[in-house]
Each structure stands twice: as structure tokens, then as C-alpha cells.
Write the C-alpha cells for this entry.
Amino acid sequence: MRLLLALVRKDLLVGWRGRARLVGLSTYAVTLLLLFSFALGPDSTTLHEHAPAYAWVAILSASTLLLAQSFQQEVEGGALEGLLLLPVSPTAMFYAKALANLLLLLFLALVLLPVSVVLFGLRPAGSPVALAGVLALGGAGLVAPGTLYAALTARVKAQQVLLPVLLFPLVVPPLLAAVKATSLLLEGDPMHQVGTWVGLLATFDVLYWSLCGVLFGRVVEE
Amino acid sequence: MAEPVIHARDLGRRYGGRWALGRVDLDLEPGERLLLMGQNGGGKTTLLRVLSTLVAPSRGVLRIFGLDPAREPNRIRRRLALLSHLPSLYEDLSGPDNLQVVARLLGRPGDPTPWLERVGLEPRPDPVHTYSAGMRKRLSFARLLLKEPDLALIDEPYGQLDPAGHAMVDALLRDMAERGTTVIVASHLVDRACVLCGRALLLHEGLPRWSGPSDRAPRAWSAFHAEAPASGGAA
């Protein structure tokens, strides 16, 4: 646990010292939301209906850049090899990196949420705590496979292209569940369906966090 | 008799169809210092990476501290440190931050200033991406020293450093020798490095070409250059 916390602290420190990149990512995601709202036009019903989907697509799109950057720093200067030789176990490395990426992604979501409320004219019906929970579960569903694939493609020249190509098909189930759960929390849930979607999301989270943690060692070690 | 730090027989490493290293036999006792010589692409870096356990050998027998790197890499890694061509630093963090990260991961958090002073750096808050190549090299050295390894694998320690930096490396290598650290140094500055080492090994195209006491290394190195050997490759 001490090692895990030290690694998370390291990743957050690197993220904080390179915060200009995080500001850039937030601006990119906000711009995406702006473009989506312009494309939909002024019809408030349509805006309400599509808001959760567009917010999550903006998060997903920005997250691929965030994930790619997180491993670029490890590989470029040989820091990853340095960690392996300390030695840091690849499993601890994966969970620390995924946790740090999740926290940075949640920061991104915190920026996007008020922007979405204003742009799409939302009046959230569900509790903010439940919404935060869905954001965390949805983010977890993206960062676990994203961290694995970011490590896998970190030494590839075409990483910016390859990472989304590999990642997007894998995150369809958690993304779908996150969009549905967010939509129900924002627009009301008369049929009490949100629990089912949250359950599906949590199942994929457990699956991805377990599987990717096991596979990560094979990716970073020769 | 103490167990050899490194015991290698017929060690080889292949990348695709090309052998980057082959037929290396090596025994290194605790506290010994070995100089690796060879041209660019001669196999020095590959040998250091195999010995660091980062790269698995394609053939041969290898024991480090009496352990099999394939089975117990972490027990070996705990006791060794590698200074490679890559600085193993986080570019957005400062020098002190980089050392503190390593110290925390080693479970020995503390003030990194003494380690920085040993390599002639000040504890400045500037990120590493503003450092010169020589300063990065010094910081990488501090990172290696911080670990206090039993086995230090050092690739081109003099590269990118000014004359004062060369003298600093000499002093650090002497200091490691006094502490009983086993050291393997790969360097093109044979005249300089041979003084600090007891033995030398010349690699050419991945194959051992000459080995002997390091005081004879400059002559062997000169003779090797005079011959200008044709390409062959390890097999």
C-alpha cells in the first residue's frame, strides 16, 4: 500500500507540474461540447436528450489524449525502466497509474459538468452524489483498459491513432452504461432502471480492473 | 569463498534474426570492477541490459547474486542499479523532486540535497527539461547513488560531461570501489576508465574479442583499432 500511494503521489505530481497539458485537454473537451451543441441547434428537447452522450464522448475523447500522455512521459526518458529496476512491481505500477488517471479524468469531468449544464440547459433530477458515483464508475471503465493500451502503444510512433482504435471498441459497454445511467439521473428515472445500468457498469469495472492488472506485467516487461 | 556477483556462460541475445551478443563467459566477484570496451553497436549496451535483467538472454546461463534472473528478477533488481543512455528522469519534475520520488519508492524518504551535492548539482526547483545534457547525466548519477546498489551497471559514464564532470565520475567510481560495490563500466574513454577498473573485456559485433587486466586494455584497444576488423556478427 505504501508503494501504491508513493506511485499515485508521483503520477499526480507529474500531472500537476505538467498542468498546462491538463488545461489544454480541458479546453479541448469544452470545445468539443461547444461544437456538439452548435451542431444540434437550439431545440432544447434534442439538447436535453443528447447531453449525456455528448458529455461522455467529450470525456472519452479527451481521456485518450490524457492516457497517451501519461505513458509518453514514462517511456521517453526511460523512467519506466527506472521504475522496473527499483524494483516496482508492474501490478502496483498499473493500479497507481490507473488511479491517478482516474483522478485526472474526474477533474476533467468536473470542468465539463457545469459547461454541459449551461450549454444543454440541464436541470439535474437525480442526486449529485449519485451523479458523481456514475462519473467515477464510468471513468474507471475507461481508464483501466486505457492505461493498459496506453502502455502497449507508448513505444509506437502512431500512438495517437492506434490507442483510440484499440480502446474504443473495448469501452463500448461501460460507455453505453455510463451514458444511460447519466441520462436517467439527469432526466428522471420513473422506471427505476438506473440501478441496472450502474450494476452493469460496476461489473465491467471489476472485470477490466482485474484483467488489465494481470496483463499489465506482460506489456511493460519484455 | 563468496558467491560470484555475476556468473555467465555462453550468454547471447538475439534481436529478430541478428545476434547482438553471443558467447560471453563472465565471472565477477564482489567488489570487482570491469571495463567494457567496444565500438558503437559492439554489444556493450546489450550486455548491460541483459545483466540488469531488463532484457532476457536468448541463450546461455546467467546467475546474478546466485539467482536466476528469469525466476527472481526483483530480488536481483533490489541490489543493482543501471545508468543507461536514457536518464530515467521525469522531465516535468525538478532534480530534487526526481530524487524524492525514487527515495519514497525505495521506502527511504528524506532530503535529496546531499545526493545532489555529490554530483555537483544545486537543489534547484527548475524542471529537468530545462537542464543541460550534462546536468541530466549528473542527476542520473545521483539517482544511481541514492539506491546504494551492490552492483552498478554504468553505460558511458563520461558522455555529455565536461572535464570537471569527468573528474567527478572518477571520484564516484573510486568511492564505489572503496565501498565494495561491484561495477561494470562501458566506456570509449579507455585510457581514463581502465585506471579505475581491474579487468577489461573488449566486445566486437557482440562477441568477446579480448579480455585481460585493465592496465593492458589501452594497448588492446589500440591494436583492435589498428586492425580495423571486418564485420562478422555474433552467432
The first helix of chain A runs from residue 2 to 17. The radius of gyration of chain A is 18 Å.
